[in-house]
UniProtKB/TrEMBL annotation:
Protein name per its UniProtKB record: Aldo/keto reductase
Keyword set includes Oxidoreductase: yes
Recorded GO MF terms: oxidoreductase activity
Species name: Mesorhizobium mediterraneum
InterPro entries linked to this entry: AKR (IPR020471), AKR_Detox_Biosynth (IPR050523), NAD(P)_OxRdtase_dom_sf (IPR036812), NADP_OxRdtase_dom (IPR023210)
Keywords for this protein: Oxidoreductase
Amino acid sequence: MDYRRLGASGLKVPALSFGAGTFGGSGPLFGAWGNSDATEARRLIDICLEAGVNLFDTADVYSNGASEEVLGAAIKGRRDAVLISTKTSLPMGDGPNDAGSSRSRLIKAVEDALKRLGTDYIDLLQLHAFDAATPIEEVLSTLDSLVRAGKLRYVGVSNFSGWQVMKSLGLADKHGYPRYVAHQVYYSLVGRDYEWELMPLGLDQGVGALVWSPLGWGRLTGKIRRGEPLPEKSRLHDTASFGPPVDDEHLYRVVDALDTVAQETGKTVPQIAINWLLQRPTVASVIVGARNEQQLRQNLGAVGWSLTSDQMKKLDAASEVTAPYPYFPYRRQEGFARLSPPAV
């Protein structure tokens, strides 16, 4: 397993990490992902650790805390062998303080997560969404207190816009608070919006990307192809409305290119889609999920080899879309600045 620095921090994370959204799954979304209990989760974690995957990502909102509970039970007795990443800020109840990133909410959310995980510290806490109602200084000062108390090691965000990340980093620098070192983002061959603004920001400011849904919300499994109906057992029947939309023709064009590269490499469509991400700027780790051992072992096969430059170009061309304003004029310039930090 390849290990990479997480942004500008000193923490090294595996190129692949495991998403625990399938643990304890319940409800229309997470129930469709999977519902591994502690015994099954322990087996999947065993396989991960054997392969060098030691970062496990979850969130309090995943099955209303059940994912954290199952993960905590599954790693019991080997806490020092794993890195735990969890998220908070999305609603965990109907009360006025059950959502957001206020001081009250963050302190309670961290304490609750520590209990569910059965640990006294979290390696990486990420804010699951930007809270426009809470002053950023309040958020950062609270995170600073939790880091100083030893309950958090590193902090990051998820699904923030560029200005939200940049303003937070500026205020962190101004007041001496911990900087965000990670941004958990949606990024895939059928969802490259991350590249327009957030990737250049990550390069410039030392914020590493943890990629969620690398298979385009289940569309790049190799089971969806032009002219064929959606497979009967596809979870997209139940979950498509929860995820980012994808134009059908764009999807088929990408899948056609993936099929071509699969014939050249002997690798599976998911393995190729993940490997492409691992060669993109700022990507520190790609979060993979699995409902069973077979899926997990297939995803683990995405590392230990690399696509050629010609294969990368094929996939780049097939997945290319017109950038939104104000980014599209610069796409015409060779050596577009989004793939390298500005000169100083």
